[in-house]
Amino acid sequence: MKAIQVGLLGIGTVGLGTFSVLQRNQEEIQRRAGRGIEIAMVAVRDVARARSIVGPDVKVVNDARAVIANPEIDIVVELIGGCGVAKQLVLEAIAAGKHVVTANKALLAVHGTEIFSAACAKGVMVAFEAAVAGGIPIIKALREGLTANRIQWIAGIINGTTNFILSEMREKGLDFEVVLKEAQRLGYAEADPTFDIEGVDAGHKVTLMSAIAFGIPVQFDKAYVEGITKLGAADIRYAEQLGYRIKLLGITKRTPKGIELRVHPSLVPAKRLLANVEGAMNAVVVNGDAVGTTLYYGKGAGSEPSASAVVADLVDITRLHTADPLHRVPHLAFQPDALTNLPVLPMSEVVTSYYLRLRVADQTGVLAQVTGILASAGISIDAVLQREADEVGGEGSTQTDVIILTHDAREGTMNEAIARLQALPTVLAPIVRIRKEELAG
Ligand code: NDP
Ligand code: HSE
């Protein structure tokens, strides 16, 4: 049978990996897919560079629409990124009846509803394994492997760049900017690295996992997103002294009131496997009612790990492309007419525990004032750590840090308590609040 014909839009970090893996493992991939998978065309802006990569047998063009218009092309792989031209091209490819593979989480988390419904109407597949956690087959696990389960919660380290930064800062004491540059050099970071460090990229990924886990539409606009740029070295240190590591987590959880959907730095007990995921590695913990807690770990970014996921999607589409569209696995795991409108909760309704750091005047009665405010708000304290003033501000210092770990509280209640604490004249700097996740099975 003739090899399935693939057109690549973009041959940067992920595109190059896809080309190399398909070439290198051609024979095994064909034995699995049932027919060959051939990259027949590539569209880029810099044609000369792409030609030097793919050689003379692959047609290189600088007009992506020429790939979509080519009747020989069965699958269009979008590896450009972003929500601009990539969105137009994906919608045009679907309209032209092409199956689409994309690694573009930003596009799907923001415009997924429009894209998936266009694909359903046309009877084509849109596959996106590489969009979440790079090489880890977490989309397949959630959509198919765990399909028997009522998923309860998912928590993951799903941005390699920020995990790399946090690891290098903690282990080697390196500066934020230095490590970010290294992550960019290694090809982990997004074209706009603020998406990584401000938690947006992780927000896109957890939005996709949430939709698949709970059968709700993709709703990135309802996600709470906080990155790592405001994290202080002191908090990383104090967390360690209390037996925790700080990780940027993407969390989505089913609660009686609705779905939690959030990304923020979190204290994770040092004994948890998730706390020990270092460098650009990703890990996702999924809790389902039948299976219990499961953990998926691997490279979350980079050329060939991401290509591993793109090629897996190409094999899936190759196997299924003659199947009746109604018998294929739905894009978001649930049948499109069976999505629910469970609300995504505002952050004020989220219930979690907290790490608070207060820079206070080293005076009698300050701790009593602070604990009094928390008690009157109904917030129960789990642990308190007070540093020597000299240790915090140098010899003769009149200021000190008080670190408080709380039990679970509603975020809205905590916001009010923090406002009252902040108004105390003995609280001398903005209070640091980091959420704490025990992640017990
Ligand atoms: P790169 O920036 O490395 O590559 C982008 C490619 O798109 C380049 O080849 C570029 O060509 C091409 N391109 C840009 N604009 C156009 C256009 N108008 N027409 C045709 N080609 C164009 O990106 P990545 O490979 O890193 O990322 C691609 C996608 O994969 C993104 O959505 C990203 O979020 C996602 N992703 C990335 C991962 C990673 O580890 N890097 C991991 C998982 C997902 P030229 O060089 O000629 O400008
Ligand atoms: N910028 C992303 C990361 C790439 O660092 O995880 C993988 O999606």
Largest pleated sheet: 11 strands, mixed
- Small molecules held by this entry: NADPH dihydro-nicotinamide-adenine-dinucleotide phosphate, L-homoserine
- Annotation field: number of helices: 16
Total DSSP E strands = 17
Low-pLDDT parts are none
Taken as a percent bin, the fraction of beta residues is 15-25%
What characteristic shape results from the CA principal axes? elongated
Helix content: 25-40%
Radius of gyration: 24 Å
Q: Report the structural category.
A: alpha/beta
- Overall mean confidence score, pLDDT: 95
Query: First CA to last CA: what distance?
Result: 48 Å
Properties at a glance:
441 residues; eleven-stranded mixed beta sheet; six-stranded parallel beta sheet; 38% helix; binds NADPH dihydro-nicotinamide-adenine-dinucleotide phosphate
What does this structure look like?
- With 441 residues, this protein is of the alpha/beta class.
- The chain is 38% helix and 24% strand.
- It has 16 helices and 17 strands.
- The protein has helices at residues 13-24, 26-33, 47-54, 64-69, 85-95, 105-122, 138-145, 160-172, 176-185, 194-197, 200-214, 233-241, 303-320, 366-376, 389-393, 411-422, and strands at residues 4-9, 37-43, 59-61, 75-78, 99-102, 126-127, 151-157, 224-225, 244-255, 258-269, 281-288, 292-299, 351-361, 381-386, 399-406, 409-410, 432-436.
- Helix 8 (160-172) packs across helix 9 (176-185).
- It is elongated.
- Bound molecules: NADPH dihydro-nicotinamide-adenine-dinucleotide phosphate and L-homoserine (HSE).
- L-homoserine is lined by residues 134, 159-161, 188-190, 196, 201, 300-301.
- Residues 9-15, 43-46, 64, 79-81, 85, 103-104, 130, 134, 187-188, 190-191, 301-302, 306 line the site of NADPH dihydro-nicotinamide-adenine-dinucleotide phosphate.
